[in-house]
Design brief:
445 residues, mainly beta, 5-stranded antiparallel β-sheet, 2 domains, single chain
Amino acid sequence: MLRDAPLQGPVPARLAGEGVLEYAFTLDAAGEAWAALTLDAPDTSWARGAAAVVGLEIDRGSRQEVILAGGDEPTEYLRFLGRLSRGRHVLRLEIDSNLSPRGVQKVVLTGARTGAVADADPGAPVWRHAPVLHYRALETRLDSLSTDTPLLLFYRILPDPAGAWDNPGLPATATFSPEVGTRIEYHVVYSHEDAGTDLTGLLARWGHTVDIEWIYRVTFDSAGRVVGEEFQGSGHTTGQFRGTRAMGEHPVLQIASTNGMVTDRVTCPFAVALAPACAQPAGEPREGVLQRFPWIYRVSALEVVRQVPLDPKPSPASPAAADPRRYVFLQWKRKNGPLVPLEATVRVSGTWYPSAWGRTDLALAEPDGESTAVRVPPGTTETQISGIALRALERPRIPLEVSLIRAFFLNEDYLPRPVFAAGGVCRLDPQKPWAVAWESSVKLE
């Protein structure tokens, strides 16, 4: 779907001080243009909340700000550039000295790709309606410079415009098919959240330290015409979109709360056009997206360690939040059955350690609640884990089937280590509310 248009200009390259980099490219057909830029800023780090900002312009017109949350680690930032005509275009990059930390002298570009999704492409509607998102500016002129910054946009395609996602048995993605009516729902992954669920809840109930929120959805009728547009407003309310558009047909939103909600009334001048990086992987929970972009785990963990008081002597018996590297991350997928509160358990040296400590308020209990994290004793490695199980904290009235998608730790750099367990299935019913999904084939001494 992402057809490249070769750039005319040097890569790698250094962007220094007041300098500007310009790259020309030519599109062979009109469409939704994009740029994938691998950037790093020496001597910056999200661990300090210090991120360089690069201004990105297309044809001396539409501008957006790219916050380099990856710091001095080369990171690919995927952005859309809006609808562009066939022919030659110019991409312009410069360090925004007004937004970047004092002392930022250079940004390094080690990779650059551009291209467009043509109108005839089956995925074109996904790109055409992706929202432009203005950054959060509640406490400063640009809060997102150091906290809760938007990192990634992904989407779901739902075949039933009448709220089919409320059915947890529905696949997360489907083929875009206007003839039967379609809803596209866009989700943003933020680096963390300053309000809402605390870190203990994020790890136990959601299995991550980021914030994932749907921000916009568009509904089409059977003829492919737009018949509804909604956004998720403050307090998790659903509002009808009546805002402006930019860069073609793209709706314009702004982050409006400290837990990732948005509004269609824009006051902050700084914006980002996150490209729809991927669909939620079929047969996986939302967190399966994060496996495709592992750098997000690191950025989020650095923010958590910077902002949240962590248990200095973590004990698996305590729900107090600890360093993310002290947890086993588990991703599940419900195949069918009722939404009952679920708790995962991990066996280490004959002892089962729980994700929710028997508390229903920390259990997996919502349609998107399919991932969790279990704190294990310090120093536990993959080879010491001999079993993974799931328990229903309320007996299901009818049988429930849940698959284990993957289990993994984070390494010392907060990046996912290789998956050590996957593929098991828990079948729970009124007579058997607990079941083992996976057991190690290695005999432990």
